[in-house]
Amino acid sequence: MARSLALDVSNRLLPVMVAFLCIMASQLVVASCTPEPVPYASRVAIVR
Fold first, then answer.
1. What is the pLDDT of residues 9-29, one digit of tens each?
2. CA 16/CA 12 separation, integer angstroms
3. Angle at 16 between CA 27 and CA 19, to 5 degrees
4. Which strand (E) or helix (H) includes residue 17?
5. What is the mean pLDDT of the chain?
6. Average pLDDT, stretch 28-41?
7. What sign results for the dihedral spanned by CA atoms 20, 25, 31, 34?
């Protein structure tokens, strides 16, 4: 009974865990990229 319940819960959580791992992997890939330099001309001057 307990084993059947554990397998049922794990089968339901499997897609959630796969999605979570994909999001974590994509965050690592994005974090390893070097940021593009932002030109100073694109900044907007604030007039007070």
1. 788 888 888 999 999 999 998
2. 8
3. 30
4. helix 2-32
5. 79
6. 74
7. negative
Which amino acid makes up residue 34? T
Map tokens 């007070």 to a residue: 48
Give the span between the Cα atoms of 37 and 35, in whole angstroms: 6
| pLDDT category of residue 43 using cuts at 50, 70 and 90 | low
Task: Kindly state the tokens that stand for 17.
Answer: 């865990």
Neighbours of 46 (CB within 10 A): 5
- What pLDDT is stored for residue 39 in this prediction? 65
Structure tokens at 22: 């994909």
